[in-house]
Design brief:
With about 240 residues, the chain is of the alpha/beta class. The protein folds into two domains: about 10-130, Response regulator (Rossmann fold, 3-Layer(aba) Sandwich), CATH 3.40.50.2300; about 135-235, Arc Repressor Mutant, subunit A, CATH 1.10.10.10. The chain contains eight helices and ten strands. It has helices spanning about 20-30, 40-50, 65-75, 90-100, 110-135, 160-175, 180-190, 200-215, and strands spanning about 10-15, 35-40, 55-60, 80-85, 105, 145, 150-155, 155, 220-225, 230-235. The strands form three sheets. It has a five-stranded parallel beta sheet with strand order 2-1-3-4-5, sandwiched between helices. Strands 6-7-8 form a three-stranded antiparallel beta sheet, covered by helices on one side. α2 runs parallel beside α3 and α6 packs across α8 (about 200-215). The termini are far apart.
Length: about 240
């Protein structure tokens, strides 16, 4: 059995063949992956859109909506990597899959070893791209740990929640960029903005308090009343 290089990866498998789905789920879990299963296109899209997964294995021929339709909707919302799996392995089928934004395309039948190699390759590329992006926008004081979903300053961890980490990461990547509440709700909280929903304000307040407790001075998270929030650099 090939070794698994990403044992903590969370995978969503969307496959309507119960025997194949069970076989794939059991095999991948035996290799150390955390695998959730859906057998319906609409349900798979809903789960994938939650942002809780590192990779989606998506069959094309599904009840509800097709895998290509689900992928199209998914690409409008977030960039989770997707490997399409299908009995349709012709050139035009592969072109259609990649055109919709698939990261890889695996034609049935395939071996579990080949599936593992494809998964590891996609996760490795995504991890590299995330490290490169984080280095390009590295904060002069904070150290970002993508795996831990937290930041540290001089060895002290802020103990951010996952939502707080995603908020701070987004702000640090886009300093001086005004972000509306509606945008932040969609990008980070993954739901529509409501005037009576104070969740975002609570998360912003927690981020400010935790950064202050660290002694962070390189930036400030400002409220622009009636418009949203702005992250500004402090003399750097």
């Amino acid at each position: 059995m090939l070794s698994c290089h990403f044992p903590a990866a969370r995978i969503l498998l969307v496959e309507d063949d119960p025997l194949l789905a069970s076989h794939m789920q059991g095999n991948l879990q035996a290799r150390g992956y955390n695998v959730s299963l859906s057998q319906n296109g609409r349900e798979g899209l809903r789960l994938a859109s939650s942002g809780a997964f590192d990779l989606v294995l998506l069959d094309i021929l599904l009840p509800g909506i097709s895998g290509l339709q689900a992928l199209q909707h998914l690409r409008e919302r977030l960039g989770v990597p997707v490997i399409l799996i299908s009995a349709l392995g012709g050139e035009q089928d592969r072109i259609a899959g990649f055109s919709q934004g698939a990261d890889d395309y695996l034609a049935k039948p395939f071996s579990m070893d080949e599936l593992q190699v494809r998964i590891a390759a996609v996760l490795r590329r995504v991890a590299y791209e995330r490290r490169e992006l984080m280095q390009a926008s590295l904060d002069p004081q904070l150290q970002f740990d993508e795996a831990r979903m937290d930041v540290s300053l001089q060895g002290q961890w802020a103990e951010l929640t996952h939502t707080e980490f995603r908020l701070l990461e987004l702000f640090v990547r886009h300093p001086e960029g005004l972000m509306s509440k509606a945008f932040l709700y969609q990008q980070v909280l993954r739901r529509a903005y409501s005037r009576h929903d104070r969740s975002l304000d609570m998360h912003i307040s927690h981020v400010r308090r935790k950064l202050q407790a660290l002694g962070y001075t390189a930036g400030r998270l400002e409220t622009v009343w009636g418009k949203g929030y702005l992250f500004t650099r402090e003399g750097v």
